[in-house]
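Operator note (shift B, R.M.): manual run for threonine ammonia-lyase requested after the automated queue skipped it. Running by hand, logging everything below so the morning shift can see what happened. Input copied straight from the record, untouched. If output looks odd, do not overwrite the archive copy; leave it for review.
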Amino acid sequence: MVAAQATNTPDRTVPTPSPRWVRPAGGAPTPAELPVTLGEIERARETLRGIAERSPLQHSRALSRAVGTDVHLKCENLQRAGSFKVRGAYVRMAQLSEEERGRGVVAASAGNHAQGVALAAAKLGIRARIFMPHGVALPKLQATRDHGAEVVLHGSTVDESLAEAQRWATETDAVFIPPFDDPAVIAGQGTVGLEILDVLPDVDTVIMGIGGGGLIAGTAVALKEAARRRGRTVRVIGVQAATAAAFPGSLEEGRVQVLESVSTIADGIAVGRPGALPLRIAAELVDAVVTVTDDEIAAALVHLLERSKLVVEPAGAVGVAALLAGRTADLGFELGTTAVILSGGNIDPMLMLKSIQAGLSAAGRYMTVRIPLRDRPGELATISRIIADTDANVVRVDHTRVGPELSMGGVHITIDMETRGAEHSAQVLEALRAAGYSPAPLP
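Run finished. Output pasted below as returned.
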């Protein structure tokens, strides 16, 4: 038994997320004591036959070269309803009695769980009511409705939607379908791990994002127990957004800890309270949890789009972000043959545009500069020529003649440009300075 054990001790609020957690030495898994077993996951796989897609496991030459080890991508972004969530939702709902099915189901989500529940309900012929917060991305809202669920917008956060969904369940006797803190849901998500082992039986490390913890809990049970039967060991690494990382502190303290706030582009894992069951399993089986920034997530999205031709949502890209940012390099063990779970692909087009720009900027391939100059003919042409001579590409130009920082006859020109990387950006800035200008890079 490891030092960090989940207990029933009341929640503690943690003002600042911990940067990472690495399993202390010692503590063999004790599967008989876990709330989900390998047998349950294997039965869940049978339940999902003909329902969940067997998503591809693609080798990534680009990532393998970048991190110096063999890397494969488990493409749950190509799953039905756009994420792994349909697995757990369907397994949980398939266990309902006829009487329970007749009462209907209710859930709350800002996206992936909503679509998973809606699709599962449609397949099982169950009436579904989904509460979603106001301001939810329109594509996710419409996709949930397209699967046949009744969608009710309530509150401004998922927590408010969740409270209303639970109130509705109590009032109407509908069956509440939790997003992660449920044995059947965890077992369904764990089928992802079995599929990885089917295709890549010699996998050494599996990396995935963590929100509430259902995916990593189920996958860890499947990987660890199935590998143990074969006399092997598989390491499991979780990744959270740095500003939504409740798991490292919870694992360190051995109890569920609640973040004061979460804010990240990775809305699919923006969860401030870990599930109690997932935390208990993670304390037994997960080897490490690391964190990544939003800029690193955006850079991973661009990498996957450019190099693997895969559209992945921010929450699904955090594992790749951890590899590219070097977060897995000093955990005390070699990765070996690695699989990264791309957990979802439901990204709002507007967020994709912003993420691509942020990712290019983080990689030094998109630069915005503000240049003060005198308002006289020919200045813009001169600056444009200098930028063109350095082989950068101007995307947008903004001319400002009025402002508190401008003197009479002064102008600020703001230029967005594409470059080949950080070194090329520095060359562009140096060329402008050599011509007598004072470019100021903007964030």
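Quick read of the result: Residues 183-199 form the longest helix (17 residues). The CA atoms of residues 152 and 320 lie 34 Å apart.
Leaving this for review. - R.M.
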